[in-house]
Amino acid sequence: MKSKIFNIAAAVVISFAASSCTDKFDPSTYAPPLSIDGYTSTKQVAPESLVAHWAFDGGLSDSVSQTVGTASGTSFASGVKGQALQGALNGYVVSNTPEKVQKLTSFTITCWVKSALNTNGIVGLVDIANTTSFWGNLTLFFENGGSSTTGKLTARTYEGVVNNGGDNFIGLTDPWNRWIHVAYSYNESNSTYTVYYNGTKVGSKVVAGLGALSFKNASKMVFGTTQFQTTPSLTTGAEKQGWASYLTGQLDEVRIYNKALSASEVSVLQRLEARGK
């Protein structure tokens, strides 16, 4: 009798132990890490060239320089990775421009944005101001004239009041109400501007002989609108314009590099961030 009781008790103990082990087993710990073209994290993409990064994960600081922005009417919402900057009508974030960004001679700027069709005017995403000129040194914005299924992105770079880079108007398919990735670069070695949409090259422009850029009066920058839509305006060259507005959607993972990333690096960055890496 005692033997039977012992056997039953042992079986219960073994069953409980097996159940406990099963409950603690996590298959994900045995899965190989995500690898895209040999990269497992965005931190591995040109880390030596990253000069600024705003993750907007509940804060407004550049993680590279520790420069902290000042919010005006904005908040935070769910993003591609963690949280994102939540824009608003008449809302934006102004920051001092990190020193290494002011000194860019080549660059790549990347970001994620989720926006409705802009019906109230152009919508600035990121603008590195020129405090004495109408347009900023480097401006990304949605142009007027989109439709429910198409959008117009303008990637513009100025030096002083001379439009060296031209207006890189890019037609976008299905850009509204979903997360999209935008990248804009300039390579001083071949004077070439390039625009990417969701990791794919969609346009380029060569400005013969342009060479190294030299931003002017670039001490301020703004997220969520253009330099002349802030209060007060970030530039003495313009005040608020009736054809311009504000990002009322979300902006996330703004990165600036001091070189033109390759097409493969942009693609890897977009795919990793889309997976939260």
From TrEMBL:
Keywords: Signal. GO terms for biological process: carbohydrate metabolic process. Residues 1-17 form the signal peptide. GO terms for molecular function: hydrolase activity, hydrolyzing O-glycosyl compounds. The keyword Signal applies. PROSITE patterns: PROKAR_LIPOPROTEIN. This is LamG domain-containing protein. It comes from Arcticibacter tournemirensis.
